[in-house]
From TrEMBL:
The lineage of its organism: Eukaryota, Fungi, Fungi incertae sedis, Zoopagomycota, Kickxellomycotina. Residues 98-326 form the Calcineurin-like phosphoesterase domain. One of its GO terms (molecular function) is hydrolase activity, acting on ester bonds. This is 5'-Nucleotidase C-terminal domain-containing protein. Keywords: Hydrolase, Membrane, Nucleotide-binding, Signal, Transmembrane, Transmembrane helix. Belongs to the 5'-nucleotidase family. Pfam families: 5_nucleotid_C (PF02872), Metallophos (PF00149). Residues 447-631 form the 5'-Nucleotidase C-terminal domain.
Length: 695
């Protein structure tokens, strides 16, 4: 409820300065001076104001005016629009007017974020100009409540529904530090009536996901995943295929992207099913229960949503989507667009055998809240003339919900000093990559980045330095991380903790895995080709302790349109591994100028060709050791040892005490920087198409 007034039938105070004077009618803007003057007159006689006078129609010449929040974030007086909606939306008793309020891909952006590629917290990043900051859960909650207040209470067949389409967690400082603790604590107070699972909900594995879902207590729906009842009993009990809203005779079916199996850490006990078959199955189940109005709540991406709507049996009225971070909008207001690329109409209409399905999505990170007004008849069909809606941009002028703001502030203040602690210095820039080569994926776009990474080299060197026993002897042969686990490099100068959090945002737990030489070569061929059998590989690897090169061949071919194309094939040539005899006393860091100068001159006498029959142990993330990105297949791991450390207790543990704390990426990189500072970049030709060793 609005903090300035109450719509309960009692006397009411109204702040004239909070009124929005522009209202949208099918993407046209009009000025309601008549309403403004009337309210100002009432304000002079506020002692006489009661609810029946305030809830006047928000209309012009009797025409229903779509409720709008303008880009400044000011909100229409909710009571006014209620009567306008009821007077203008003439529906049968068997129909329902439904306002769907939706978010997706919040990715732990708890407070307003900076509009750049990283999208980090403006407060935690010390952004001076807060007008460039967007989103924030306190603002989102305020908008959700305003949108609900306009509809709730109109009548029995005027309803609202608040949905979230997944990926609530993963990304930004808050997740890096608190994991799901902070996000979950606030999400459970946002008023969501159902959520589906995104791929990133699985990033810490099913056990962590189960705890997160138990803590937030929301209805969770995902019909296309099968959870092993024996191995993941609690998760199986939490996740349903659909949720029925009896008062609306409406069912919501959830879908999660099948890509989760290889882009996250879902583990061996989660199976993913075909989208079309799943939807058709559960639409029939709901129909058999007498439920005719059906919404899909999906985390599969905008393009898949459109394909799905055209392929399934008729019966789905609305698809509320996520995953692709798509900005859908049908207007031309630049303040709403804000430089974002419009990827489709809001709503996108798909006609399937004379059945209309409306598709909506609200970009990502909480920059927008979507709201779709729609009328459904008793069979679930859309009454098209009443369909309207738009994404609402959450700006620095959008008001905040005080209770949510207070919660966010607690986590924010706790985190600020911690992430700004200095760890060391870098003598030079440590870039993510010096030069980038991109390989096309199956869709013809470019995804795989193939080039040595000074930042990747530093992180993998840190893993090597950390992997020693009590006698200071090296206990692994090499280290490996995926290219997607590092987002940016480090700049010359002081290194503070949040620089590491920005560079390696996933903070994966570390495991030691064992494979044989043949598997290693096969895996490297996979990252070069983009495939391992029928599995797609979309990331390169950064390594320490392994050096490899490849050959390239270019062939001409004719595509389906008859055009001549060139296809480049890359195949591993040589793979070298550092001799164990040379690392028995432990790997050292690159922490002095002499080592930096000779870094590119690697002595071949310290290396040997990988032996197909030999077993090698390496340090990597849990994500990779569990088959992430299909770099390694789960069946290829001979032995897997998760790394625990009883001394691994950080400030976050005061909030959420751990059991069997894991060694993670941050701790290893932080320790390396503290012990080796000042840091020098490492760029020594570990992976390339040319010679691996120089004379």
């Amino acid at each position: 409820m609005n903090e300035q007034y109450h719509c309960s039938g009692s006397s009411n105070e109204y702040n004239v300065e909070q009124e929005t004077l522009n209202y949208r009618v099918e993407n046209r803007f009009i000025n309601s001076n008549k309403d403004r003057n009337l309210i100002k007159t009432f304000a002079l006689w506020k002692s006489l104001l009661i609810i029946m006078f305030l809830c006047v129609p928000n209309s012009v010449n009797g025409t229903y005016v779509q409720r709008n929040m303008n880009p400044s974030g000011l909100v229409d007086f909710a009571c006014k629009n209620r009567k306008a909606i009821k007077n203008q939306i003439k529906i049968r008793e068997s129909d329902i007017f439904l306002r769907i309020i939706h978010t997706n891909d919040i990715h732990s952006r708890l407070d307003p974020f900076e509009k750049n590629e990283q999208g980090e917290s403006c407060k935690l990043s010390d952004v001076a100009d807060r007008s460039t900051c967007f989103g924030g859960l306190a603002r989102i909650k305020y908008v959700i409540d305003e949108l609900k207040n306009e509809v709730d209470g109109i009548g029995n067949n005027f309803k609202s529904l608040v949905l979230d389409a997944g990926d609530q967690i993963q990304g930004g400082y808050y997740y890096s530090f608190y994991k799901g603790k902070a996000t979950g604590d606030i999400i459970k107070s946002m008023g969501f009536e159902a959520m589906t699972l995104g791929n990133h909900e699985f990033d810490q594995g099913p056990t962590s996901l189960t705890k997160y879902l138990k803590d937030i207590g929301l209805p969770v729906i995902s019909a296309d995943i099968i959870v092993n009842k024996t191995a993941e009993t609690e998760l199986n009990e939490i996740v349903d295929s659909y949720k029925i809203f009896e008062e609306m005779n409406l069912g919501v079916i959830g879908l999660t992207t099948n890509d989760t199996a290889w882009t996250s850490s879902s583990g061996p006990n989660i199976e993913f099913l075909d989208y079309v078959d799943t939807v058709n199955k559960y639409v029939k189940i709901l129909n058999d229960k007498g439920i005719q109005r059906i919404i899909l709540l999906t985390h599969i991406g905008y393009e898949f949503d459109k394909k799905l709507a055209s392929m399934i049996n008729p019966g789905v009225s609305v698809i509320v989507g996520g995953h692709s971070h798509s900005f859908l909008y049908s207007g031309d207001d630049q303040k709403v667009i804000g430089g974002n690329k419009i990827q489709g109409s809001y709503p996108t209409i798909i006609d399937n055998n004379s059945w209309t399905t409306c598709i909506v999505q609200a970009k990502c990170w909480g920059e927008y809240v979507g709201h779709l007004d729609i009328v459904l008849d008793s069979t679930g069909k859309v009454v098209n003339k009443y369909t309207s809606g738009s994404p609402i941009r959450i700006t620095s002028e959008t008001k905040e919900n005080k209770l949510i703001k207070k919660k966010v502030d607690i986590y924010q203040n706790h985190l600020y000093n911690y992430i700004n602690e200095k760890l060391g210095d870098s003598i030079l820039n440590i870039p993510l990559v010096d030069d980038m080569v991109r390989l096309p994926d199956t869709n013809g776009t470019t995804n795989i980045e193939i080039k040595e990474s000074p930042m990747g080299n530093m992180v993998t060197r840190a893993l090597m330095v950390a992997a020693k026993n009590s006698n200071n002897n090296q206990i692994i042969d090499f280290s490996l991380i995926s290219s997607g686990s590092i987002k940016i490099g480090l700049k010359k100068g002081p290194i503070i903790r949040k620089n590491i959090m920005e560079a390696t945002p996933f903070n994966d737990a570390i495991s030691y895995a064992t494979i044989n030489g043949t598997v290693l070569v096969d895996a490297l061929n996979g990252v070069l080709s983009g495939y391992r059998g029928n599995n797609t590989v979309r990331e390169f690897v950064f390594m320490d302790g392994v050096r490899f090169n490849w050959t390239e061949s270019i062939k001409e071919y004719i595509d389906e349109s008859g055009n001549s194309k060139l296809n480049t094939t890359r195949v591993v040539d040589r793979v070298y591994i550092r001799k164990r005899s040379t690392i028995s006393n432990g790997i050292k860091g690159i922490s002095n100028y002499d080592a930096y100068k000779i870094g590119s001159k690697v002595d071949i006498r310290e290396w040997e060709i990988v032996g197909p029959g030999k077993n090698y142990t390496f340090a990597t993330s849990d994500y990779i050791s569990n088959g992430g990105e299909n770099i390694f297949l789960k069946t290829e791991i001979i032995n897997l040892e998760r790394q625990y450390n009883k001394k691994n207790v950080e400030i976050r543990d005061l909030v959420d005490p751990p059991t069997n704390p894991r060694v993670n990426t941050y701790q290893i990189v932080e320790s390396y920087i503290k012990s080796e500072s000042p840091i020098y970049p490492i760029s020594e030709g570990r992976s390339q198409p040319g010679p691996l060793f120089k004379n």
